Structures are given as structure tokens and as C-alpha cells.
């Protein structure tokens, strides 16, 4: 019973770490990556559609993304969606493909991005801690239902070790992303 609760908690914590990882991937670090466009949604025939479902996204150079829509009539809509998004890059188009040139990051922008990373990481840590709290409450409730106290205590210790493991993983993600951003 306690083991199932611990594994369920671990599964939830893994998902929280994955969310943080995806958030970091969508942050611009001066290097071109198709993940930059993950949050950009295009109104395609009235339906909100992610760019990666409308076009091929490639990285021909370190600082350039090329978006090649399968339907050429979608080019203006894709451009409009990129302009409206918060990625801060102006698209250039020749009617067939859209090019996004990623500018070099200024030191000021790098520091801003590091703050954003730390904020998103803290949100991830809080999510992991909330999961720990919820499962600790569940363990205490199970104790009242008749599970032995020492088993509940072992479960709580195991839950704490799992929490520490995932918070450490988030910290490592922060360190790696911070180095990537601060690299000139």
C-alpha cells in the first residue's frame, strides 16, 4: 500500500520535472532550436494549430531557424503568429519559407533569462514539494485507517528521499541552462 503511494508520488514528481525541462527548452539561449516555437500557435482555417503540425522546422545554422510550411497559404498566418508570440524574433519570408534569425543575446538579456529560469525552477520545486505534502497527508490518513506507524514513517522517509532526488534534478537543469545562456 505504502509502496504504491510512493511510486505514484514519484510519477507525479517526474512529470513536474518534465514540465520544467520543457519550459527551459522553449527559452531562447542565443542558439536556434525548434523547441523555441513549441508554444507558438497558428490560427489555421480557424483552428489553433502548433507550428510543428503545419510545417517542417529545420536549423541550417547555429543562429537560424527555417520554417517550411506544407501549405504555402499558411505562410502569412505563421508569420503573424510568430510576431504575436513572446519569442521576440521578427520573421522574414520569401513566400515559400520563413526564416528566423536569432540575434546574439546581450548581457542584460542573459541576466533576465537567468532570472526567468530561476523563477520557473522554483515553480517546479514548489510543485514537487506540494506533491510530497499531498502524499504525506495521504500516508497520515492511511495510518488512521490502520497501517502501522513505523511503516508510515518509512514511507515518509522514502517520500523525502524521492523529493530530494527530483529537486536535485531541477537544480542540475538550472545549472546547465544557466551555463548555456551565459556562454558567449
TrEMBL record:
Ribosome recycling factor domain ranges (all copies): 21-182
Gene Ontology molecular function terms on file: ribosomal large subunit binding
Keyword tRNA-binding: no
Keywords recorded for this protein, A-Z: Cytoplasm, Protein biosynthesis
The gene coding this protein: frr
Family as reported in the entry's similarity comment: Belongs to the RRF family.
Pfam families reported in the protein's UniProt record: RRF
Identification of the protein by name: Ribosome-recycling factor
Role description: Responsible for the release of ribosomes from messenger RNA at the termination of protein biosynthesis. May increase the efficiency of translation by recycling ribosomes from one round of translation to another.
Gene Ontology cellular-component annotations: cytoplasm
UniProt subcellular location: Cytoplasm
Gene Ontology terms describing biological process: translational termination
